[in-house]
Amino acid sequence: MPGQPFPISGPIPPEDIVDREDFLDSLETRLADGQSVVLAGPRRTGKTSLAHEVLRRLGKRGFYTGAVDLFRVTDRRELAFAVIDACLQNRTGLRKTAATLQERLKTLAGSAKLAVKLHDVEFDFRYLGEEPDEKELLHYALDLPERLAQADGRSMVVVFDEFQDAGTVADERIYKLMRSYFQNHRKVSYLFLGSKEGLMKRLFSRESEAFFRFAVILPLPPIPVDAWTAYISGKFAQAGLSVNEERVPEIVRLTGGHPQDTMLLCAELYRIGGIGSGRLSLDAVRMAYEQTMVLLGPMFDEMLFELAPRADQRKVLKRIARGEAVYSGGGRAAEIKRALDALGSKALIEKNGRGAYRFLEPLFRDHVLRVLD
């Protein structure tokens, strides 16, 4: 049997991005034209993979590119160096230029060549000390994308992943500081990713927020069932396995087309050898579904654990999972509304019509029904 045909971790390769070509073309064009963009949606739905692919395409066109993952950053100093490294990688080819410089300065080996590459962006080697001036360092980092682009006559695109976490890395004032620099950048456009859709929309749509109308918010379109069907059937065929396409939509129905959950269920189906005599049996799909639920169980339990102190949120979550009217079964309307807002801000549910809500991840709904009922 060949290797696993369905990617289940990390940003996925271009050939496994399903039915996003038109969206990627639009995203690439906007960024190349200097427009900054927001992509907001739950984790594990493909935002980072799309961002990596659009950076790859822009890089081939001669753009400078950089990516900063705020989920991995814990303070202002780390934020500054993450931005600096993302920028300077375009000059040095090193993913962690600052750390490499720090090591080479200790031995004096190779540091001179790197210093030459960085001289005209005025990189101050004092920043590599144990206690650099944090304020000065951050100001330098936030202006570096434009400075580098201007120095090299390039346009640049920078991605900030989990952008809503910037306020916890530093404090809410960081947004004003970032905006004060970014709004003056003429050769740089920004792609902001965020897993908390409500918070991201607030940051870019509320007039009182620093990033009000700084970037256009693009909705991430769902992947149609027929696109999933063609992709899944094709992947099994490439692996030398034939399937009955009439069975494939059952996979998408179970996962709701959630990108990573669909890939995981298909990977489990492939692993258990659920193909026989050219037909994909429903029993095999169900077995793969149950194993997928086992694998996702610890993550879903942690999501519920975070709600443990809020019985009202758990209660509302259970009503939505059962398909009940959220305001039925007792409880004060104001408390239910607060619970709905909180669950929405955590990217667990979204409004689906007047008084109707749905889970953003159907397999999490199934887990809630098993655990909370």
Polypeptide structure, described:
It contains 16 helices and 9 strands. With 373 residues, it is an alpha/beta fold. It folds into 3 domains: 199 residues, 3-Layer(aba) Sandwich (Rossmann fold); 77 residues, Orthogonal Bundle (Helicase, Ruva Protein, domain 3); 67 residues, Arc Repressor Mutant, subunit A (Orthogonal Bundle). The strands form 3 sheets. A 5-stranded parallel β-sheet has the order 2-3-4-1-5, with helices on both faces. The chain has a two-stranded antiparallel sheet with strand order 6-7. A hairpin with a 2-residue loop joins strand 6 and strand 7. Helix 13 crosses helix 16 and helix 14 crosses helix 16. The protein is globular, with a radius of gyration of 23 Å. The mean pLDDT is 88.
Instruction: Tell me the structural class.
Output: alpha/beta
Order of strands in the sheet with the most strands? Answer: 2-3-4-1-5
The average pLDDT value, as a whole number, equals 88
Count the beta strands: 9
Under the CATH scheme, the architecture of the largest domain is 3-Layer(aba) Sandwich
CA-based gyration radius: 23 Å
Number of helices: 16
Q: Please state the overall shape, judged from the principal axes of the Cα atoms.
A: globular
Q: Low-confidence runs (pLDDT<50, min 5 residues)?
A: none
Series of secondary-structure elements, N-terminal to C-terminal:
HEHEHHHHEHHEHEHHHEEHHHEEH
According to CATH, the fold-level topology of the largest domain is: Rossmann fold
State the end-to-end CA separation.
41 Å
CATH superfamily of the largest domain: P-loop containing nucleotide triphosphate hydrolases
Instruction: Please write the CATH class name of the largest domain.
Output: Alpha Beta
- Our estimate of the beta-strand percent is 5-15%
Helix content: 40-55%
The biggest beta sheet is recorded as: 5 strands, parallel
